[in-house]
Amino acid sequence: QYEIPNADPVHRKVKLPDADPLYRTYRQCIADGLYSASAEAIWGKVTDLVNDCMKKHNILKRFPLRQVRNSDETKYFLNVTSNIPASEQCNVVTLGIGKDIAAEQQLAKLIPAQCHFHGADPGINENKQLYSTIGTYYPYAIAATSGIKSASLYGMWHPENILTQ
Q1: How far apart, in whole angstroms, are the C-alpha atoms of residue 153 and residue 150?
Q2: Which residues contact 118 (CB under 8 A, 6 or more apart)?
Q3: DSSP-derived pairing of the beta strands 2-3 and 135-138
Q4: Which residues contact 10 (CB under 8 A, 6 or more apart)?
Q5: How many other CB atoms are found less than 10 A from the CB of residue 69?
Q6: Cα–Cα distance between 29 and 108 in angstroms, integer?
Q7: Whole-structure pTM over 0.85, yes or no?
Q8: φ, ψ for residue 120, nearest 5 deg
Q9: How much of the chain exceeds pLDDT 90, in percent?
Q10: Are 73 and 51 in contact (CB under 8 A)?
């Protein structure tokens, strides 16, 4: 269990599932970095934190992650073998489409055709038509609780009400 600072007493403890030792140490590295940051500082720190923990624990060498670049970031996907049995499902999930599916389009050329793309982003106007060309679009932001929340969307740096799931 992890202690969540400044959480109300009911939600203070989070029970995390058992996992292999590498995942536990990587998860702890991320948790330590996030929990030591203020809520305001987390989003400015998370990219460096993930990269630092990946390097510290040699994640890219130990997991078959594939790096695919789009216009402003690198996305990481677990490598999918080309010989997935027809009876097995293959899903690619994008959380935060950000008006750019270049990485997903590149990935689609590298993975079996039976793989299905699913993308979630609350910016409906920019992302629905774009993502629907490669997969199923969901008009939500991902959050700890469902509801209407105030957030700043990519490219629109003012608060806006969005639906979360």
Answers
A1: 10
A2: 91, 92, 93, 94, 135, 136, 138
A3: unpaired
A4: none
A5: 11
A6: 31
A7: no
A8: -120, 135
A9: 25
A10: no
Q: What is the pLDDT of residues 52-103, one digit of tens each?
A: 998 998 877 777 778 898 988 888 888 777 777 888 888 999 988 989 999 9
Strand, coil or helix: what is 145? coil
* Per-position DSSP letters for 20-79, written without gaps between them: -HHHHHHHHHHHHHHHTS-TTTHHHHHHHHHHHHHHHTTHHHHS-EEEEE-SS-EEEEE-
Cβ distance 40 to 71 under 8 Å? no
Tokens 């990519």 sit on residue: 154
Residue carrying structure tokens 């993975």 = 111
Residue 143 CB contacts under 8 Å (≥ 6 apart), including other chains: 149, 164, 165
Strands 156-164 and 147-153 come out as: antiparallel
Number of residues written out for the chain: 165
Q: 148: which 2 tokens?
A: 């209407």
